[in-house]
TrEMBL record:
GO terms for molecular function: aldehyde dehydrogenase [NAD(P)+] activity; succinate-semialdehyde dehydrogenase (NAD+) activity. Residues 3-452 form the Aldehyde dehydrogenase domain. Keywords: NADP, Oxidoreductase. This is NAD-dependent succinate-semialdehyde dehydrogenase. Belongs to the aldehyde dehydrogenase family. Pfam families: Aldedh. The lineage of its organism: Bacteria, Bacillati, Cyanobacteriota, Cyanophyceae, Spirulinales.
Length: 455
């Protein structure tokens, strides 16, 4: 796919961009290396000031940035504006806390003094997805810039204007030239960047194949990677749950970002005694959602980001139905309008071996499973190659503790939808990836944890 802005609500190609040539890539890498040699020595107070400036810019221009996100990937405008403001939050969080997170840590030893010192590595490549085109980048950029690393962004090819705008924000905040650069390149050029000696590590948020490709290329160069990949997150509802609250949160968790979120609730695992009522209430909620122009404040559900995503999702739904699944609501693309619109859909009676059983559905499709008890619920929740997030709903303390201890995921949220928060680590296990972003762990991922011993 070429690098272009294609409005997913209309199918119109708005603007195209030329990819960097190999020589232009090398020039950008040289700038990054040159910048790092001086930037790494910048006082942490100065970096904090610059990052606070970036937060102010993000908040001041949040509507403008939201409109760019909505144009390029179809996110409803109110969610897009909120995303820009959330980026300001992560900038302020690391600007305010990095000095403590990176402070020397005393250690016991047989010397007269020993401590741990955190130091930057160099240039870090970030391969980022289109679904949260600002947030995914700033949750990488904020801690790494405070740690003294410099950033190289290879963004998704369908959000080039977002990518360029992020570079502009960081430059306008006062960071020196080369501290953060956008590389308008296709996936085929990533290996050239990874192979360059100035690049010391890489992070990727995206699909399993993309993550495997990046990790393989980095592994050949003995370079560290962090991967945040797919998820088929379970949303477990037990008999003691507040059903209305669970349905409301489940609808939000499934439809957030037009259903295109790694941590969206995808598999709704509900005990039989309340499953019929849960299905009825969720169906009512789905029917009430307003589908349409994502630039309008009243829109709940906009288009999928690309036509290929729409096609892939529909193929998963149709194959599951052919194998015996039932569509309670939805189940067919909306063909009465231009753009990549798919309706809110609920699939039940999901058969073994169907795509709906274990694959990730990236769109507004809820997969409803009925189970006898908590034992079956946990077993089904864990019967997946993924392990990103999980949500459990119960008022019973013993059930809560079992869900916390036994659900195989990087995060377990009890009586709430799974979400990212600058203050707590974020990441997965199994085929959902490895490493952690956000929190203190996020700033320690790409630093040299240097042991210092003094006689």
């Amino acid at each position: 796919m070429g690098i272009a802005t294609i409005n997913p609500a209309t199918g119109e190609t708005v603007k195209t961009f030329e990819a960097l040539t190999p020589n232009e890539i090398n020039e950008k890498l040289a700038i990054a290396q040159s910048c790092f040699e001086t930037y790494r020595k910048s006082a942490i107070a100065q970096k904090s000031e610059w990052l606070h400036n970036a937060a102010n810019i993000l908040e001041r221009n949040s509507t403008e940035y939201g409109e760019i996100m909505t144009l390029e990937m179809g996110k409803p405008i109110k969610g897009a504006i909120a995303e820009a403001k959330k980026c300001a939050w992560v900038c302020r969080y690391y600007a305010d806390n990095a000095a403590d997170f990176l402070a020397d840590v005393p250690a016991e030893s047989d010397g007269s003094q020993a401590f741990i010192r955190y130091q930057p590595l160099g240039a870090v490549l970030a391969v980022m997805p289109w679904n949260f085109p600002f947030w995914q980048v700033f949750r990488f950029a904020a801690p790494n810039l405070m740690a003294g690393n410099v950033g190289l962004l290879k963004h998704a090819s369908n959000v080039p204007q977002c990518a360029l705008k992020i570079e502009e924000i960081i430059r306008d905040a006062g960071f020196p030239e080369g501290a953060f650069q956008t590389l308008l390149i296709g996936s085929e050029a990533v290996e050239q960047v990874i192979n360059d000696a100035c690049v010391k590590a890489a992070t990727l948020t995206g699909s399993e194949p993309a993550g495997a490709s990046l990790a393989s290329a980095a592994g050949k160069q003995i370079k560290k990677t962090l991967l945040e990949l797919g998820g088929s997150d379970p949303f477990v509802v037990l008999e003691s749950a507040d059903l209305d609250e669970a349905v409301a949160a489940g609808t939000t968790a499934r439809m957030l970002n037009n259903g295109q979120s790694c941590i969206a609730a995808k598999r709704f695992i509900v005990v039989e005694s309340i499953a019929d009522e849960f299905e009825r209430k969720m169906t009512e909620r789905f029917k009430s959602l307003k589908i349409g122009d994502p630039t309008l404040e009243e829109t709940d559900l906009g288009p999928l980001a690309t036509s290929s995503i729409l096609q892939d999702l529909d193929e998963q739904v149709q194959k599951s139905i052919e194998m015996g699944a039932k569509a309670v609501i939805g189940g067919q693309p909306l063909k009465d309008r231009p753009g990549n619109f798919y309706p809110p859909t609920i699939l039940t009676n999901i058969p073994s071996g169907s795509p709906a059983e274990k694959e990730e559905f990236f769109g507004p499709v809820a997969l409803l499973f009925r189970v006898k008890n908590i034992d079956d619920a946990i077993a089904l929740a864990n019967d997946t190659p993924f392990g990103l997030g999980a949500s459990g709903w119960t008022q019973n303390e013993q059930e809560r503790d079992r869900l916390i201890n036994e659900l195989e995921a990087g995060a377990v949220f009890i009586n709430g939808l799974v979400k990212s928060d600058p203050r707590i680590p974020f990441g997965g296990i199994k085929r959902s990836g490895y490493g952690r972003e956000l929190g203190i762990q996020g700033i320690h991922e790409f630093v040299n944890v240097k042991t210092v011993w003094v006689k």
